[in-house]
Amino acid sequence: MMMPRRCLLGIFASFLLIIGIAPAIVQADITGNTYDFTAIWFTQEYQVDGAVVLDEVFKGDFHVTVHNITSSDRYEYSFAGMNYNRYRFIPYYDEQNDSVAFQDNKVYFNIDTSDADENGIVDDYEFTTYPYFNEHLPGNMFFVNPVWSTHNADWNSAISDAEAQPGVTEVTDSIGGGSFSFKIVVRIEQVHSVYNYMNGTLTITFSAEFDLDGVLSTWSLQQVSSISNENHTITHSLGQSFARGSGAGTLLDPTVNVAVLAVAVAGIGGLVVGVLIGKKY
Fold first, then answer.
1. What are phi and psi of 10, to 5 degrees?
2. First CA to last CA distance, the chain
3. Pairing label, strands 196-210, 179-192
4. What is the reported pTM?
5. In 3-state terms, what secondary structure has residue 18?
6. CA distance 248 to 244
7. What is the mean pLDDT of each run of 10 residues along the chain (281 residues)?
8. Between vectors from CA 80 to CA 78 and to CA 83, what angle results, nearest 5°?
9. Half-sphere exposure of 75 (CA within 13 A, CB side)
10. What residues have CB less than 8 Å from 205, skipping those under 6 apart?
């Protein structure tokens, strides 16, 4: 006997309700996949009174291929392409195999500021994002836990800690569905080697996007310091970014896949170009 139409509609509605309340399973089998990335490992611009005195960027392309997922939830991968030594500012061609515990990889950050004279203006700071690019574990930052609710605790704790730091005047953030972003503004001061006492602000902005499998799509971090006194203004920008693309080019030819640009404009006697405060990534 044919089931009444009203019963069929009721069963269908119940089925939709069950789907709606069931937990989402977002982790897919990505073994065998190759992901192509373009990296800007380090870029900076240094301006004095509006004139650019230093402008440089170090970038390159690479592949990350996932070969296996182990019983302990590690992706075994191979890395091929340009790598980067951040201490010597040297990009170089590299091939290596390793693994990453992606379930333990959560997106968050840490900032510690120092105000030695307790005047509400920071004279030093330390800042780190997690996960981050590691020359010796180059696939580590590109695979994170794809269950986004597991990131909330570490992320929210980082936001609370940032808000409590000396000199921090603004913290805004957004998190959800594989998207992460924040903006932090800090009051800073420095006794410059040429221009004496200067003060101003440090602005740190971050954004990252991951796909449903927890694989990085885009990642960007920028730190901009702007300090001044009655005579001079110095602006120093530091940046790092990664972007996934459709292809990373002919990686066997390092000369094609790495770009290094450095432009220094002479004429400002005695100018010491360096980090205003804190550390470079």
1. -65, -45
2. 71
3. antiparallel
4. 0.81
5. helix
6. 9
7. 46 42 54 96 96 96 96 96 90 96 97 95 96 94 97 98 97 98 98 95 98 97 98 97 68 39 35 34 28
8. 115
9. 31
10. 181, 182, 183, 184, 220, 221, 222
